[in-house]
């Protein structure tokens, strides 16, 4: 593997070759044999590109066993006849030659059986341009586009260098399959994907001809060096730290020196001072995020969101998920309390919360602090790391940074776990305020849980407490699962 090597991975049908005639006629032949005749070949163009098994099931409404039989019948005609009812799109040889001259490695990743891929490439005399030609395996294995791409990356020894690879395809499943594999995708409009389909998939770029692919000459995305990246991630945390010290010392000076009050008076106001620090720090950090967002749009990292607002039911859902995470995060940490020396933390918390109304605690600890912390640790730290590495690595870094910043072992372990989960769910949902409401839900529930549980035990009994916990488990787990499944459904696109 050569550093900064450039690689283009191509789809075959609809991208390099116009294979519609052979495929649609062979599909028509198969549908007739399984009792689902379709006289209109134009309707069968949707079979060009996607895995045949799934497409037969979806189009004809047949079960998997019948669909497998249809695939076998399809190949009865396609192998001897349909494969040659095919032609190269204009400018393909010239485009491939031009990319090779510019130092690109080229590969094919197709859902078509691999032996067919090689036959087609050899038939049109373009096989010499490709370092690897990958397709599906016999008996329907490795038909999913992402699986095919992953196999191509494995053979090219590029699994750890995905930032140097770009995909070229003509259908939505090419774009989404590439994205799930961590690649950007150029979509060609001359193939079998509709204009609406391609726009909704949000490829890196849409081109109208083979010549435009060559003219575009996509370059690998440059990643920031670790020292620079570490600085970019940590200085927003430094903003909060400096402001916290400034506000604390000014508050201490005013209360102790100017009014003659003692340290107890300071602790009476420390909650407000902490919240004020968060609000002050959030202002410049929001401006920093706006700059990041503009840059991500310009460089193609982000994809347009249909709706960037969270509806009220979803806000309530995230508050409940946050309560679930807060409840069981606290239980998990509680199991290790004896090893984490919690006395100092508990003493400090008592001084901070003593004599405060529940509404004051909810505002400063349940609303103001979570908002400020999410702006810093997720909107900036996590997302900046996310620009340069995988989701799980960036989420772990965000969680660790968040935990270390609490400067208390017990609270640090809890914050690390919660920060990791907040970052992952933020990525999956693709909305900035998802993690904000998660954090608010966790903090507010932590403030209320003792009183709520005692009240329920006194007035409704243990059954209601058990029911509440079961509700949190079910609702929280289901909500997280829905976020992840929707993330997969949209092709793992980044919206933030």
Keywords:
elongated; 496 residues; alpha/beta; Rossmann fold; DNA polymerase, domain 1; 6-stranded parallel sheet
Protein architecture, described:
It is a single chain. The protein folds into 3 domains: 6-15 and 86-216, 3-Layer(aba) Sandwich (Rossmann fold), CATH 3.40.50.1000; 20-84, DNA polymerase, domain 1 (Orthogonal Bundle), CATH 1.10.150.240; 226-489, no CATH class. Helices cover 64% and strands 7% of the residues. The model has no long low-confidence stretch (mean pLDDT 85). It contains 18 helices and 8 strands. The two termini are 32 Å apart. With 496 residues, it is α/β, with parallel strands linked by helices. A 6-stranded parallel β-sheet has the order 5-4-1-6-7-8, sandwiched between helices. It has a two-stranded antiparallel sheet with strand order 2-3. Helix 12 packs across helix 17 and helix 16 (409-429) crosses helix 17 (432-459).
Précis, in short:
The chain has helices at residues 20-33, 52-60, 64-78, 92-101, 114-123, 145-156, 172-180, 195-201, 210-216, 226-258, 263-298, 312-335, 343-353, 358-386, 391-405, 409-429, 432-459, 462-489, and strands spanning 6-10, 17-18, 87-88, 104-113, 132-136, 165-169, 184-188, 205-207. It has 496 residues and is an alpha/beta fold.
């Amino acid at each position: 593997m050569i550093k900064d090597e450039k690689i283009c991975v191509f789809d075959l049908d609809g991208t390099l070759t116009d294979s519609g005639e052979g495929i649609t006629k062979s599909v028509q032949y198969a549908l007739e044999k399984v009792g689902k005749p379709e006289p209109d070949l134009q309707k069968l163009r949707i079979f060009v590109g996607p895995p045949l098994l799934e497409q037969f099931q979806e189009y004809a409404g047949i079960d998997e066993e019948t669909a497998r039989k249809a695939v076998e019948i399809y190949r009865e005609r396609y192998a001897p006849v349909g494969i040659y009812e095919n032609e190269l799109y204009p400018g393909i040889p010239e485009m491939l030659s031009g990319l090779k001259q510019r130092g690109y490695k080229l590969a094919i990743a197709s859902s078509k059986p691999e032996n067919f891929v090689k036959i087609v490439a050899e038939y049109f005399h373009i096989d010499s341009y490709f370092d690897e030609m990958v397709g599906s395996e016999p008996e329907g294995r490795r038909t999913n586009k992402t699986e095919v791409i992953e196999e191509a990356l494995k053979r090219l020894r590029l699994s750890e260098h995905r930032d140097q690879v770009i995909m070229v395809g003509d259908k939505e499943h090419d774009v989404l399959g590439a994205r799930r594999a961590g690649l950007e995708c150029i979509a060609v409009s001359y193939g079998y994907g509709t204009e609406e389909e391609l726009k909704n998939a949000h490829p890196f770029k849409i081109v109208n001809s083979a010549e435009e692919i060559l003219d575009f000459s996509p370059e690998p995305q440059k990643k920031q060096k670790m020292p620079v990246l570490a600085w970019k991630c940590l200085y927003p945390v430094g903003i909060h730290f400096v402001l916290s010290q400034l506000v604390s010392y000014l508050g201490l000076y005013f209360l102790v020196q100017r009014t003659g009050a003692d340290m107890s008076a300071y602790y009476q106001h420390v909650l407000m001072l902490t919240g004020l620090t968060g609000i002050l720090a959030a202002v410049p950090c929001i401006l920093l995020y706006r700059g990041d967002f503009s840059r991500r749009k310009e460089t193609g990292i982000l994809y347009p969101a249909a709706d960037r607002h969270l509806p009220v039911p979803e806000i309530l859902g995230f508050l409940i998920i946050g309560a679930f995470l807060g409840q069981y995060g606290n239980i998990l940490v509680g199991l290790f309390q004896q090893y984490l020396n919690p006395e100092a933390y508990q003493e400090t918390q008592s001084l901070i919360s003593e004599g405060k109304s529940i509404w004051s605690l909810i505002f400063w600890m349940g609303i103001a602090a979570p908002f400020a912390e999410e702006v810093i640790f997720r909107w900036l730290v996590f997302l900046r790391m996310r620009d340069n590495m995988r989701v799980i690595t960036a989420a772990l870094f965000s969680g660790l940074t968040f935990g270390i910043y609490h400067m208390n072992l017990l609270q640090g372990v809890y914050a690390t776990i919660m920060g990791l989960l907040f970052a992952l769910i933020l990525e999956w949902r693709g909305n900035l305020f998802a993690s904000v409401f998660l954090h608010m839900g966790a903090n507010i529930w932590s403030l209320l849980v003792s009183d709520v549980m005692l009240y329920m035990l006194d007035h409704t009994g243990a059954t209601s407490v058990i029911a509440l916990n079961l509700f949190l488990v079910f609702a929280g787990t289901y909500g997280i699962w829905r976020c992840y499944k929707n993330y997969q459904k949209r092709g793992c696109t980044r919206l933030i």
